[in-house]
């Protein structure tokens, strides 16, 4: 009997010691928890309720900013409320008692989005842009297309105007020239001396009583055709002589001007050469005089 009593008392003492040990450990951990700020220990605390704005629209950002300001004001008021839980341990007990708070909404889109959700949205947006990147015309492509359309319109207008020009070119007369349809080589233009000799021969042939009338008629027709084509006709020996004299006078005048220019250039060159040689002589004489003076001073 004594042995049974001793064993039962030992077990009760051991149980009492275990409870005391557990209580002491619990109190120790509670004190440790109370030292940690709530925002680092409890998820969803008032101080940690900061929304993640990246990837949201302007309206969603504005609503989340407003909600965060209200939460900040509420947390400041709760600090001075004696009935409100202030320590980390009290907030932990409150969260354990109310696992589903009233503020939490089942719809995740109403609250702040997580980092993974935002990344998923970004990936989806990139895929949408890649799939539809060739559907939207780029600005330089639109300008290029517009230029091509304008070029096509100009080509069509030119093609419409070309037949009109061809019809006009089919006419026999253009700018006073007669088209005979024969492709002849261009004749070399006669000099004034050759034209004068030709005019003198024609004047002599016109004086012939047998052939003079026919030559005069033929020459008059040729002169009329040449003047109608816009060509100058030199058939008067007096006028040709006057033009030759004028040209000679003009050439003589140009030659005189050229000679004056060459003479003035040569005279200016000689003057410069003379000035240079005079300067050299003057400098050498000065150097000689300076050397003689130094010799006298030294002696």
TrEMBL record:
Pfam families: RRP14, SURF6. GO terms for cellular component: nucleolus. It is found in: Nucleus. Residues 118-289 form the Ribosomal RNA-processing protein 14/surfeit locus protein 6 C-terminal domain. It comes from the Eukaryota. GO terms for biological process: ribosomal large subunit biogenesis; ribosomal small subunit biogenesis. Residues 98-110 have a biased composition (Low complexity). Residues 67-81, 116-131, 157-169, 195-216, 229-245, 253-281 have a biased composition (Basic and acidic residues). GO terms for molecular function: DNA binding; RNA binding. Keywords: Nucleus. Residues 22-83 form the Ribosomal RNA-processing protein 14 N-terminal domain. Residues 133-146, 283-299 have a biased composition (Basic residues). Belongs to the SURF6 family. This is Surfeit locus protein 6-like. It comes from Iris pallida.
